[in-house]
Each structure stands twice: as C-alpha cells, then as structure tokens.
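Appendix B. Chain record.
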Amino acid sequence: MGSAYSGHSTGDQEHVASGVRKRLPIPDNEELEKKFNNVLGMMDLPLEKEREMRKFNDEKKWEIICDQELVAEREPPHYYLLKIKAHMSMKGSKLISPCLVQ
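Structure tokens predicted for this chain:
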C-alpha cells in the first residue's frame, strides 16, 4: 500500500518514510472509539450503515480513521484559491477569473 505522499498526517495516525505509509499502533479502546465516532459523524451515513460499521473490529476501525485523516480537508477552500491565484500571478498568467478569488 505504497504512496507518493510525504510527510505525516495532522492527526499523527501515520508516519511516512521513503514514500511508504506506516500506521501507528491502534490506540486504547476509549481513544479508538472517540476517534471512530468523530469519523462516523463526518461521514453522514444512513443509520443502518452506521450500525454496520460500529460492528467492525478495532483494526478495521483504525484503518478507516487513518484513511479519513488522509483525505480530510487541511485548509478551507479559500486558502487554496489564494495559493493558486498567487502562483498564477507570479507566472504572469491571466487564466484565473477575478470572480474566483476575491
């Protein structure tokens, strides 16, 4: 399950060395359940699917927590729009519409 991702997740569930993700050990049950409940809350699942996922074993729950952290939004969209605008203006490009970033 290699990846070109470099760095570590903001929640420290994974460390990356040489482009290969290495999961940290599963936390104690109380912490695991707290994190898993947070992830389920973000997923906005139908009640039946949520019940099904709560039956997962600890390893599967930890895998879902770590995967969610990789795809979680790090900054609000406006932050990235400003970064793109700055990059494009340094290149002298007129490709970004003034409507996109105010």
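Further analysis of this model is presented in Appendix C.
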